[in-house]
Amino acid sequence: MTTAIKVENLSKAYQLGTIGTGTISRDIHRWWTTKILGNEDPFLKIGETNDRSTKGTSDIVWSLKDINFEIEQGDAVGIIGKNGAGKSTLLKLLSRVTAPTTGSVKVKGRVASLLEVGTGFHPELTGRENIYLNGAILGMRKKEITRKLDEIIDFSGVERYIDTPVKRYSSGMYVRLAFAVAAHLESEILIVDEVLAVGDAEFQKKCLGKMGEVSQGEGRTVLFVSHNMASVKSLCKKGMVLQHGHLNYSGEIDNAVGKYLGGNNQSLNYSVINETNQGFVLKTVGIKNTYSTFKDNILRDKEIMVEFSYDNQTTLESLYFNIKLKDDEGKYFLVTASDNERELVTIGENKAIMIIPAGFFNEGTYSMELMILNQSKNGYDQIFYDPDTLYFQILPEQRALGTWMGKEVGYIRHTFEWTT
Amino acid sequence: MQENQQEWDLIIDGKSSLFDLKLKDVWRYRDLLAMFVKRDFISGYKQTILGPLWFLIQPLFTTITFTFVFGNLAGLSSDGLPKPLFYMAGITAWGYFSDCLNKTSTVFAANAGIFGKVYFPRLIMPLTIVVSNLMRFGIQLLMFFILMGYFYVTGGAFNITWAVVLFPLLIVLMAFLGLGIGMIITAMTTKYKDLQFLIQFGVSLLMYATPVIYPLSAAPEKYKKWIELNPMTSIIETFRYAFLGSGEFSAWSLGYTTTVTLVIVLIGILFFNKTERTFIDTI
């Protein structure tokens, strides 16, 4: 395996505010200190990380700060992060639209970047002419385009209009044609921004399918930026999470998506409780996919188990687990309870396991409220209660390329039995 | 260890080497240059009835106006040449230079959209302008030749001289001079746009400091030296000498122009390449 892209200490500073007469005195000051006196740039020293919501004192912000990573040849890497995390800046630097403030990027192979589809399309030119123009802008040679022309026209599905100026096209046709050109680039490294958020669902499928073909089938290196976790997960094996211009995580895509969705709230798949009440010790509560560990991410298309481990030292008559699930806004959407009180009260160390069938939950972030009751002659007796026992994420399944990538609504996404 | 052995195809970093002209990169993208020129040409006259003929209207009317105002009203010398021929020679040559200069001087601002989305050697854009304008220049030149033919038939006093062989050199000089100055200006206007205002009327004023509406021989001795410092002077004079046989030809001043042009183009490319790296952040 050879390295296709190596990024070292990459940083990019931007200046806030407007450029006007005020900036020229500062430019002169800067030029004087750095070029004549040979000192460090005083304005970059006081730069701050890029956090939009807080008011800073400096008007220089680091859109990216000390980013280091390597990408192996043939990897498909998803870059995720909130708006303003530095994704676009990173793409701009990698595609040479602007130069870094410090640090370097080393690349092996030809890079083609798609920060936008249809860059340079001219409304007066026909579809065919624009294929040549756009292809050339993206770095293709003329004969290369001629060789692929039929394929491009075929992929775009606008054959009938190919000799009509593109200003007569519908916006959908325009995008189809533009993507068709981009999809037929022959570079070793392909950098793609969220250009897929265009066109109708059918065409989106086609685009993602093509991208998958490029990365998996042809073994090219792909960098893909998107907010759509389902498509990132389907396309990419590895992921990078950017936050406020720093590289927060780099590694397996599942973990990256988990990190991103987790955001600021630490997710809590497994919680050690050790609380004693009436001789009953609730030791731990955890949720995971049945055949994985508590450290792994929970996937929605695999069976899920919730495990309660406890030590029962007294003779409780019965145990009753009441579980309520809430969404990330604290709204209840599900309530369930145990129904085998007698079996649960064995003396000694014990484990109660609740199985949730595969594909039951929709993707999302949920929290679990747990209440444990002892049912006796006197009625119900509460022996444990915690409104936020667990806080966990259900990650989307890896969908087949070419299927719909949007997020479904709701919390439960169970497939019921159908008959005719 | 592996990393030392690896050869990188491309290294992007914060520093730029000053004397890397990146001409190899430009050569690799030559097809793009051709495509841009084609785009300019096609989009220029699409949905017009007269098409490229419109390129002729402007110099034609300017010639008529100049003949009337400077030739007949002001009575400026035309070196014994038929007046329309004299003015059109100047206007055609000057027009090419000033078109190159004007359009090149806004190349960053005018193409910020496309430059902000995709990388290709930025030099392609000013080169496109020079080549696109060449087509326009060619059409105008054709009209000039037709006018020459008309005056030849009607017995106007002019003759073509050996200096016609220098014509390709003149074109290159005009193109490079316009390109060089334009690139310096566009590089300087990405952050502070003040110069843009200067260039708008500066170029039209510069025409009066160049022997376009008067022959160099008619300039007062006192100012002649200054006019000769203008690198465009010898280009226009040589152009007229070549096709009409009037004016002066001086190898010295053409050599001077060539030197100045080369220096300006070199400075222009260096400036341009330095600016292209991050101009998108400040424009």
Strands of chain B, total number: 1
Helix and strand composition category of chain B: mainly alpha
- CATH architecture descriptor of the largest domain in chain A: 3-Layer(aba) Sandwich
Name the chain pair whose interface involves the most residues.
A-B, 48 and 38 residues
**Pattern of helices and strands of chain B:** HEHHHHHHHHHHHHH
Total number of helices of chain B: 14
How are the strands ordered across the major sheet of chain A? Answer: 6-7-8-4-9-10
Low-confidence stretches of chain B: none
Specify the overall morphology of chain B: globular
Task: Assign a percent range to the helix content of chain A.
Answer: 25-40%
Please outline the helices and strands.
The complex is a heterodimer of chains A (420) and B (283).
Chain A: E1 3-15, H1 21-36, H2 42-45, E2 48-49, E3 60-72, E4 76-81, H3 87-94, E5 102-107, E6 111-114, H4 127-137, H5 142-156, H6 171-183, E7 189-192, H7 201-217, E8 221-225, H8 229-235, E9 238-243, E10 246-252, H9 253-262, E11 270-277, E12 280-289, E13 298-299, E14 304-312, E15 319-327, E16 332-337, H10 341-344, E17 348-356, E18 364-376, E19 379-395
Parallel strand pairs in A: 2-3, 4-8, 4-9, 6-7, 7-8, 13-19
Antiparallel strand pairs in A: 1-3, 1-5, 9-10, 11-12, 12-14, 14-17, 15-16, 15-18, 18-19
Helix pairs in contact in A: 4-5, 4-6, 5-6
Chain B: H1 2-5, E1 10-13, H2 23-28, H3 30-45, H4 54-73, H5 83-104, H6 107-110, H7 112-115, H8 124-153, H9 167-188, H10 194-206, H11 221-229, H12 231-244, H13 251-276, H14 279-282
